[in-house]
Design a protein that fits this description.
Layout (H helix, E strand, L loop, with lengths): L1 H27 L5 H12 L16 H16 L3 E4 L5 E5 L9 E6 L12 H17 L7 E6 L7 H7 L17 H7 L19 E7 L4 H4 L4 E7 L1 E10 L3 E2 L11 H18 L5 E3 L3 E4 L5 E2 L2 E10 L2 H22 L2 E6 L7 E2 L2 H14 L3 E6 L5 H4 L5 E6 L15 H24 L1
The protein binds zinc ion.
Length: 439
């Protein structure tokens, strides 16, 4: 009884305080500093720097450990309270006026692929740090606590966010990445505690929202000269192994009208996959990226072909629809070419992860009010946000990648573009903070 009563009073006080605060807060917020953001990108780029101008900051390496230490020291210098969970995710908390309110979580990752660049991941972490700097500079205290997160080992399979979702499989713990360490050893090496990994799991009602800012990693925003991408979700991926059985025979003596050529069948199927994905309404993509003929000799009609099929879309129904059309075309091709075509679904596929519609609207409004150009778009690449959609209402903000280059030392986002992204992130967080009060 007592606690309920106190909580009600806290909510009323919060509400009264909140009437005046949030709208004014966004107006008082200074603009993000391109120089400060670029300075932090440069400082972080020293950890794992390679001769190409990029970084090898693979998770669980010394470079990862030292890069994390640099970020932690910066977060502490901003006055945040830093903790590391059992999965080695870093959390930095800034208290709100209502400490019992659900926090707003935002951040990204700082680990890289081998031979990676300086922007995939760090841009989102540094934009999140910029938001804290802006709030500190304007002396704004949000109603809700804010938590900045740096996910562990994003590039090696979204390890940190999978653990938060409670979906890190025990069988994955032995997987060794380019650091030479397993996920279990590596997690402990950078400050986690694998024996207590279950404690990293986060209940679905813990956070008011999660927002990740990230570079686009494609060239659409750069080509269209737009400032901001409002991400509709992370596409789902379906993978199949396709086997085509024909009849291997002599390539010189078998008449053309008497062949069961698995390669001819495979070629027709490849064209059909392309045509189906192209002609159907929507933004689905479908790819045959691997093909092998057996026995694989110039003078033998292929008796068997093995090939891959990949279909991606934001909606599982669309992936299913494309696959059904491919299967139908395959049946027709198989009958005509007297071959057998079979499909086996591979279990590595990932489900589509749509972002929260309310978060998309808040991000769009923030961009519009700041006078920044934007468009909505899907993410064709994977992100921690795809796990976070299962934990909290999730939004994603893309900033342009110059030339669409990513996972390369030539990855680049201009300081101005990063700062505009940080502005949108800051205004988004304040809007979520204000919006929550009205519910
Ligand atoms: Zn990334």
């Amino acid at each position: 009884m007592t606690s309920v009563g106190l909580r009600n009073i806290a909510i009323i006080l919060t509400f009264v305080a909140g009437i005046f605060q949030p709208a004014a807060a966004a107006e008082n917020l200074p603009k993000a500093s391109p120089d400060r953001m670029e300075g932090r990108i440069k400082a972080l780029s020293h950890f794992g720097k390679n001769s190409d101008g990029g970084v090898d900051r693979v998770a669980y390496t010394d470079a990862d450990l030292h890069g994390r230490a640099y970020i932690i020291s910066e977060l502490e210098a901003m006055g945040l309270t830093v903790r590391i969970d059992a999965a080695a995710n870093i959390f930095a908390r800034r208290e709100g006026r209502d400490p019992s309110a659900k926090p707003i979580l935002f951040g990204s990752h700082i680990d890289s692929v081998p031979g990676g660049g300086n922007y995939d991941g760090p841009t989102g972490v540094i934009a999140a740090m910029e938001v804290i700097d802006l709030l500190n500079a304007a002396n704004i205290q949000t109603t809700r606590p804010l938590e900045l997160v740096v996910f562990s080992n994003e590039e090696g399979g979204l390890v940190g966010s999978l653990a938060m979702r409670g979906h890190l499989q025990p069988s994955a713990l032995a997987v060794v990445n380019a650091s030479g360490r397993s996920i279990a050893d590596g997690t402990n090496f950078i400050g986690g505690n694998i024996s207590d990994i279950a404690s990293a799991e986060v209940r679905a009602d813990t956070y008011e929202a999660f927002i990740e800012l990230h570079i686009e990693q494609g060239g659409i925003l750069d080509e269209e000269k737009l400032d901001i991408g409002v991400v509709e979700g992370i596409v789902g991926i379906g993978w199949w192994d396709v086997t085509i059985d024909g009849y291997a025979n002599h390539g010189g003596t078998t008449a053309m009208n008497n062949r069961r050529d698995a390669m001819v069948s495979a070629a027709e199927l490849t064209l059909a996959v392309n045509r189906i994905a192209l002609e159907m309404d929507g933004r689905q993509v479908a790819t045959v990226g691997r093909i092998q003929a057996f026995p694989g000799a110039p003078n033998v009609i292929p008796g068997r072909v093995e090939m891959s099929l990949e279909i991606r879309d934001l909606e599982q129904a669309k992936i299913d629809q494309v696959y059904a059309a491919v299967e139908k075309a395959a049946a027709e091709i198989a009958a005509r070419t007297k071959t057998g075509i079979s499909f086996k679904e591979i279990d590595v596929a990932s489900e589509p992860a749509p972002t929260d519609i309310r978060m998309r609207k808040i991000i769009e409004t923030a961009a519009r009010e700041l006078g920044y150009s934007y468009r909505t778009m899907p993410s064709g690449a994977g992100h921690d946000a795809q796990d976070m959609v299962h934990i909290a209402p999730t939004g994603m903000i893309f900033v342009p990648s110059v030339g669409g280059v990513s996972h390369s030392p030539n990855e680049f986002t201009t300081p101005d573009a990063m700062a505009k992204g940080a502005d949108v992130l800051a205004h988004t967080i304040l809007a979520i903070d204000a919006d929550a009060l009205e519910k």
